[in-house]
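Customer ticket, subject: "Can you confirm the structure for Major facilitator superfamily (MFS) profile domain-containing protein?"

Message body: Hello, I'm evaluating your service for our small team and ran a test protein. I'd like someone to confirm that this is what the system normally returns, since I don't have a reference to compare against.
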Amino acid sequence: MDQTGSLPKNDAERQAVQSEVDIEHAPVANDPRKWSAVKKTTVLLLISSASMSVGIVAAIQNPAVKAMEQDLPATSDQFSLSLSLFVLVQGFMPIAWTSLGEIKGRKIVYLLALALSTVAAIAIAPSPSIGLVIGFRCVQAMGSCAFLAVGAATLADIYEPHKRGTKMGLYYTAPLLGPSLGPILGGGLTSGFGWRSIFWFCAIIGGICFAAFLLLFNDTFRKERSLTYQAIVKQRQRKQTSENFELQSKSAGHDFADANGDISPTPEIKITFRDVNPLKPIYLILRRWNNLTMLFATGIVLAWQLTIVYTIARTLTSRYNYDAWKVGFTSLAYGVGALFGSVIGGRLSDRMLRKTMVENGGLIHPEVRLKSTMLSMFFFPAFVIAGGWVTQAHAHIVAVIVILFGGGFFSVHLIRYFSMMYSSMLAYIVDANVGRSSGAVAMSTFFRGILAFTSLETAVPMQEHLGDGWMYTIWGFIVSLSGILCIWTTYKGAEWRQRAEDRENKQAN
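Agent reply: Thanks for trying us out. I re-ran your input and got the following:
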């Protein structure tokens, strides 16, 4: 609505209203929103392919647990530490990557991240000890995590809000395939060539992705649409104007003006990494209750999916006597379920958003997306609990596969990416933080990293002392909390968000 309370009647008026409340539609040169479908699809395919490689890197090690423990040698605790530190580093580093991306653009982030991940894989392959493997896996995590935050921001750069849910659903089919293919590839490579071959494979796909981004990727970042960048510019302008004014006053004894009495133009400002203070955007994101509730919700879901992938691999190895190849092949059920869930969830989210736009004359609010997660909120915990007792009873493998497929479909049950529930939750985080989308997603990975580190460190003791049935039952109640937080945000999120925006606008003025 405008100041009189009436709805905008045409596209021009709607764009004007949107421009007043955010910078998402600020005019820019070579607007990524106006690129051709082919150009947008190229960007989508590139970040999807790279994200699939990130998923492969994270999951490819799981089927090689026994081989690595025997060869290095290593204990179960050391191996679980390598996994938990990997996700912990993945949680912290996106904050730095997004800060760099807000001043230098998306492309430099992707290239540096891919280079770092590739070099780390080359170093891991010949490592003679578990200590070196853990250290370089952390370096590998530093590189691979960039796509967790910046990828979603890239989609926000090129697509309007009412199309993002579908595009994110399509985008996350690739990361879902990565963790699904990872165990299969890891199992096959370990069985045929030994566990070290899996990291040579990671180095090869990392190099291919690096070359593709270097040659084909067009940067989507526009500084005019970044609140972080604009805040830095305003701060630097105020500082330079003040310094110039004082200097001019001391030397000439009058105001900083030219011969005609007009204020001289501000010199061009060059923004560097030293100007970026990642703490302030983080503070602004965390001050919003709607962000906090969703960050905890997504963190719980992603912590669970890492736990289930690791613990199910241990169960299949110990109770079902599966080798690395069979463990990897069984894990494909996760990806297939999550693949369908991601696409369907994204389309459902966008459909609800478009319906609300029509009903409200083009005005929308991000909380509408969360309504598409309602069904998943009830089925998600049920599949978590059922999965535990199915494996506890050593049921037929077909029952295990069905449970894993259902869990992947309804919840992001798969490795560490997104299905029906999470695609809508992530799209909400992006839509609710215009101009700070990459920072908001980075905070999502931060919460995920902290919670996943804790869950992986406690996974083995819980599994050994409680068994799959009670361990997954406890997790069923924990993941129910994510659904409660989603429902709460659905009904209160708009109020919280508007209150925070009003407060920030008053402070800015």
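A couple of notes from the result: The two ends are 22 Å apart (CA to CA). The chain has two domains: 35-159+179-223, 277-508. Feel free to reply with more questions.
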